[in-house]
Amino acid sequence: MPIISAHRTLTFLIGIGLFFDYFDSNLSGTVSKVLQVEFGVDGNTLKLFLASGFIGQFFGSILLGRLSDITGRRRAFMINLAVYSVFTLLGAFSPNAAWLILTRFIAGVGIGAEQTLADCYLAEVLPARRRGRFIGWAYCIAFCGVPAVGFTALWLAPQTILGLAGWRWVFIIGALGTALIWILRRRLVESPRWLAEQGRTAEAEAIVRGFERQAGIQGQPVTAEPASPATAEPARQATVEPAQTDPVRLRRPGYRELFGPLYWRRTVMLWTFCLLSVTAYYGFGALAPQVLAVKGFDVVAGLGYTAMSFLGYPIGSLLSVPILDRVERRTLICVSAALMAASGIGFGLAGSTVAVVAFGFCYTLLSNVFSTASHVYLSEQYPTAFRTTAAGAAYSLSRLSAALLPFVLLPILTNAGAGWLFTVIAGCVAIMIATILRLGDRTTGTSVDLPTTAGAGHDGSS
Q1: Mean pLDDT of 404-429
Q2: Which helix H or strand E contains 165, and what residues bound it?
Q3: Contact (CB, 8 A) for 202 and 244
Q4: In this predicted model, what pLDDT tens digit does every residue of 203-219 receive, in sequence order?
Q5: Cβ atoms 388, 66 nearer than 8 A
Q6: CA-CA-CA-CA torsion sign (64, 65, 70, 71)
Q7: How far is residue 344 from each of residues 102, 287, 423, measured CA to CA in Å?
Q8: CA dihedral defined by 384, 385, 389, 395, rounded to 10 degrees?
């Protein structure tokens, strides 16, 4: 298939949902210093607040990832955004720290599978030769959420509007924005690959024929006449009688397959990767304001420098777009991770404002080249039958790791300083790179449903 307007529309609808995923993931760290003043939280309460959203995402990634393989990608998309929007709005009106922690946890359950669903869905509907580029475009939109939350908090934190503290308005904006995305995402079609796996071949065929007509490709006629593939709801795509649908209900593979002879190598690689990569990626986003506070910057100045550093996120994702389908994913991940670790050490040791912003910007820019390539790579590891189950399990470990970050890294920052903090992070990155190089497969330009052999190794023979 060539790239058509339907592919662009679907990529945009996924990207704007991911925008609020990244808005949320960096929200707690960005407003943490403000909340210390508002509620007087400190010590373990502060750590629990920073961790609560990620703990929720750990459970959400597992539950909704599995639900997606059972009930469909589209339905899981609608559930996750609805839960997140409602409980983020409730969190905006928290009377105390306990209520805020609880609502952050449940909102995290909702948003936890967003990246899993987005990566796998796009991998299933995009042509293999352009898959990396378009997933990269989705994350260009997504990563705008990181500086957005930084500048929104910088603008609103010192203010009181309609009797509500500024940080509460940051939560309200996130909740209402997600509600709008929920409405727009009703235009998503179901994944044809998922439909085919369920034996619903007529529905899958109808969607694909709609894509083909839009591309000017003449295919075999089908019994149903689908509407515009990018905008119509699945129910409007085709009216399928029971007799037209394959009655054979395929067995749904589960978690047991992850460590079977076909997939154990990539599962070990991905689980190690997800546990350690978050230490570098979210370690900066969540702890940058705390690092700057230790360096002696006040709350408002720290938020300003953090927001400027966060500009590197969308720029890094944009720079990754033209190279994602030209450079082997595994190589791009390892090189960008090594450079990111070096920039992090520079940020930790920086003493001047210029150095802080410069190293912070380099760190976020490189981290999003790394992150965008990682999202594409993870979506390419497992077949459609249990893709979101497997990817959700791996992503959940990254959320668990992110939840533990404040409890592990804050004591290092407090007792040993920012230099040692980023040295520990660099060590985690080194282990991650070695694991990918040893166990990772080559995936660039290959089908996401190629047969896998038991003897497949890290040389790309799968």
Answers
A1: 80
A2: strand 164-165
A3: yes
A4: 999 999 999 998 888 76
A5: yes
A6: positive
A7: 32, 12, 8
A8: -20
Which residue is listed with tokens 């808005």?
Answer: 23
Tell me the residue type at 38.
E
Q: Sorting pLDDT into bands at 50, 70 and 90, what band is 297?
A: low
Mean pLDDT, all residues of the chain: 79
CB 292 within 8 A of CB 302: yes
For residue 456, is pLDDT > 50?
Answer: no
pLDDT value of residue 452? 45
Contact at 8 Å (CB) between 428 and 405?
no
With a CB cutoff of 8 Å and minimum separation 6, the contacts of 350 are 356, 358, 359
The phi and psi torsions of 226 (rounded to 5 degrees) equal -75, 155
CA distance linking residue 11 with residue 74, whole number of Å = 14
**Quick check: 113 and 150 in contact, CB under 8 A?**
no
User: Could you give the residue ranges of the DSSP H alpha helices within 126-257?
Assistant: 131-143, 145-156, 166-184, 192-197, 201-214, 234-237
Helix axes 97-111, 73-92, angle to 10 degrees: 170
Six-digit token string for 130: 């352009």
- Across 116-153, b (16+ Cβ under 10 Å) vs e yields bbbbbbbbbbbebebbbbbbbbbbbbbbbbbbbbbbbb
Q: How far apart are the first and last CA of the chain?
A: 23
Tokens of 373: 């390539």
Of the listed ranges 51-60, 135-144, 226-235, the one predicted with least confidence: 226-235
User: What's the rounded mean pLDDT across residues 259-268?
Assistant: 88
Nearest alpha-carbon partner for 373 in 326, 411, 422: 326
5-189+255-439, what's its fold?
A: Growth Hormone; Chain: A; (1.20.1250)
- Domain-by-domain residue ranges, the chain? 5-189+255-439, 199-244
Phi then psi dihedrals of residue 165, to 5 deg: -65, 150
Residues 6+ apart with CB under 8 A from 207: 189, 190, 192, 195, 226, 229, 234, 237, 238
- A 10 A CB-CB count for 251 gives 7
Residue whose structure tokens are 């969308």: 314
CB 408 within 8 A of CB 88: no
Q: What is the pTM of this model?
A: 0.76
Which two structure tokens, joined as six digits, stand for 41? 């939280």
